[in-house]
Design goal:
115 residues, alpha+beta
C-alpha cells in the first residue's frame, strides 16, 4: 500500500487532514495485492489504482473513485463507462469522508471494483 498525497490549496486544513486520515484507514482495509494512491486536486480527493500495463509492464494509474468537497460536504463519484465522473447511486453527501470511503470498499453495485 502506498499513499501519495499532494497538498491541496482548495480545501480547509482540517478537512484535508480528516480526508488524509480516512484515506489511510481505507488503504489499510484494501487488498494488499493492489496499490492505491490518493491525490488531492483542488477540492477533491482522487483515489487511483496502480497496476502494470498489460503489454508494456509500465505502471499506470487508473482513476477509481472521486470524493468531491462542496457546500461543506463530501460527495462520492465513480468513473462511468464513457470516462466521466458520475454520482454513486444511493449515497448522501457526508461531512466526513469515512462513510463514503467505506462505500467504495463495500461497493454493492460493483462500480469501483470492476473486473
Amino acid at each position: 500500500m502506498e499513499t501519495s498525497l499532494v497538498v491541496s490549496d482548495g480545501l480547509p486544513e482540517f478537512v484535508q487532514r480528516q480526508a488524509q486520515v480516512a484515506l489511510e484507514r481505507f488503504l489499510q482495509k484494501s487488498s494488499s495485492a493492489a496499490m492505491f494512491r490518493g491525490r488531492f486536486q483542488k477540492t477533491a480527493l482522487l483515489i487511483q489504482e496502480q497496476q502494470p500495463h498489460p503489454i508494456t509492464g509500465e505502471t499506470v494509474l487508473l482513476p477509481m473513485a472521486l470524493l468531491h468537497w462542496r457546500d461543506a460536504t463530501w460527495r462520492l463519484y465513480f468513473r462511468g463507462s464513457r470516462g466521466r465522473w458520475q454520482r454513486y447511486p444511493g449515497t448522501e453527501p457526508s461531512v466526513s469522508p469515512t462513510p463514503l470511503l467505506n462505500q467504495v470498499y463495500r461497493d454493492e453495485l460493483c462500480l469501483f471494483w470492476r473486473q
